[in-house]
Design a protein that fits this description.
Blueprint lengths: L4 E5 L6 H14 L7 E5 L5 H8 L4 E5 L16 H6 L4 E4 L2 H6 L4 H13 L3 E6 L3 H5 L3 H16 L8 E4 L13 H16 L3 H6 L1 E5 L4 H8 L6 E4 L6 H11 L2
Parallel strand pairs: 1-2, 1-8, 2-3, 3-4, 4-5, 5-6, 6-7, 7-8
Helix pairs in contact: 1-2, 5-7, 7-8, 10-11
Bound molecules: phosphoenolpyruvate.
The site of phosphoenolpyruvate has 15 residues, from strand 8.
Length: 251
Amino acid sequence: MRRKLVVGNWKMHGSLAENAALLGALRPALADLGGAGSAVCVPFPYLAQVQQALSGSPVAWGAQTLSEYAKGAYTGEVSGAMLKDFGCTYVIVGHSERRSLFAESDAQVALKFEAAQKAGLIPILCVGESLAEREGGTTEHVVARQLDAVIQQVGIKAFAHAVVAYEPVWAIGTGKTATPAQAQAVHAFIRERVASLDEGVAESLIIQYGGSVKAANANELFAQPDIDGGLIGGASLVVEEFLRICEAAQG
Ligand code: PEP
């Protein structure tokens, strides 16, 4: 049985005061998730605050991107080792906002995935199609391309220490959620593709769904056989919503 994992992606939101309120409410409430895991991925400047607030709790934390480089003259960049210094467990790589707004290519995402693992972090690799791609019938092609770029770089065994998040771009922050059946179909496709290379890795791989997950739809989504929790944007900033989503992952 795979455990479920719910990760909040705060994106570029928060302040010291807002985060303190959020973390103060989450920490006691998420103390016992009955085997499911939870984490928050926060903006770089708040890593120290989150580390202090969540240390010793079962709630993990992480960042939303990292540099593909380990060290050097890369002004403004943050390395995997720096994230590790702040106790990060996870780092999101290849979020669709990074791919579309910051022109991250499949190859660059693959290098970031590799850099994360080299630093001892668990990458959460985001894959997903745009609305035009879905309507054009190329969802599987796009997801396979994004996945294969990483597999080519690091090999399939590396996925034993990674999480994949299927995030249809048309569902992120739009209020439009993929139906449980639509999401399950792509999750099964991802798992089969990984299984064609390594069945053991596929069986244990956590594949999260992301895209307008809310308390109201989490139960149905997480009940699908290949959906192992969620990557949550907007709803992770609302205590009651995030807690109820985490509860849904308990099964
Ligand atoms: C995300 O940030 O990855 C995301 C899925 O956002 P939202 O839940 O707001 O759609």
